[in-house]
Design goal:
The protein is mainly α and 290 residues long. The chain has 14 helices and two strands.
Length: 290
């Protein structure tokens, strides 16, 4: 009993520096954010006063906030689903030996090695209607397509997100495939299972927990999408491609209303809180199955 107590004390003492660092980086900014959300903190006013729930009431009655939330959720679901399917398909293709595999594998990972903002600037230049390579090639083919038109901008953004982040789902899916026991595939081959039967009756059932975790990680990350869309469209045309992150950014730095921006950030956190127990449960189930 004494030894256990000593180990507990030692663990707290050894982890104290890390806990203090996390508190300074996470807890204190969170406290300041909550305090700002309940304050009338505007750049145009010299005095910060208490606002109560005024910022939250303003948000709940703001159509732009709800439209940005709806766009963010639909965008996150679509890009995550497509990237999971494409990344897993590529992982299946790379889960075998073929010439130049190492070179192609390295090239597949290039997008996630580049800063998202830099990649977005590159996309913006390549797709520019006046000097861009892609519009120029389309014109040579006799096609007049406005990539940034309202009817096609969503497809453009989804395609660019897939180019950037499919490498993430591919890498995790490939790692999961490599960790599967080879004996399972040998047994399936001996039993006469076709490639399709092996995929749907052996591979997918075993990798289902891993794929679900990959989906959650990518979905939660896509909810924070800012760099790509802000650089490409600025949230336009109008507010049709405005994510929650862009809405908060504009509220704080374009309109100077830090209280409203903080309230919007807290509302997003509160929106995600009910889903966290289910998400953590899935992580635990996945760990138990492994």
């Amino acid at each position: 009993m004494l030894l256990k107590t000593e180990r507990t004390i030692a663990s707290w003492v050894l982890s104290a520096p890390l806990l203090l660092l996390l508190a300074s980086l996470l807890i204190w900014p969170l406290v300041l954010g909550v305090q700002t959300a309940f304050s009338r903190d505007r750049l145009s006013e010299f005095e910060v006063t208490a606002a109560g729930l005024d910022n939250f009431i303003t948000l709940l009655n703001a159509p732009n906030f709800w439209s940005s939330l709806g766009f963010t959720l639909s965008y996150a679901v679509i890009v995550t689903s497509l990237e999971i399917v494409l990344g897993f398909t590529l992982a299946l293709l790379f889960d075998r030996a073929f010439p130049a595999k190492k070179l192609l594998f390295s090239l597949m990972l290039v997008p996630i090695m580049v800063a998202p903002a830099l990649l977005a600037v590159m996309f913006r230049l390549i797709l520019n209607e006046n000097i861009g390579l892609v519009p120029g090639l389309l014109r040579l083919m006799g096609l007049e397509v406005s990539i940034f038109a309202q009817k096609s901008i969503f497809t453009t953004l989804v395609s660019l997100d897939m180019l950037e982040y499919t490498a993430f789902t591919f890498l995790l899916s490939y790692s999961s495939l490599q960790s599967m026991p080879k004996e399972l595939f040998e047994s399936a081959a001996i039993d006469g299972a076709s490639a399709r039967q092996t995929l749907f009756r052996v591979t997918l059932p075993i990798l289902q927990p891993s794929l679900f975790i990959i989906f959650l990680l990518r979905f939660l990350d896509s909810l924070r999408t800012f760099d790509l869309i802000y650089i490409m469209t600025g949230g336009g045309p109008g507010t049709t491609t405005q994510t929650v992150g862009i809405y908060i950014f504009k509220a704080a730095f374009a309109y100077g209303d830090f209280g409203l921006a903080s309230a919007a950030a807290i509302l997003i956190v509160l929106f995600l809180v009910p889903f966290m127990p289910g998400i953590l449960r899935q992580f635990n189930l996945a760990g138990e199955r492994k």
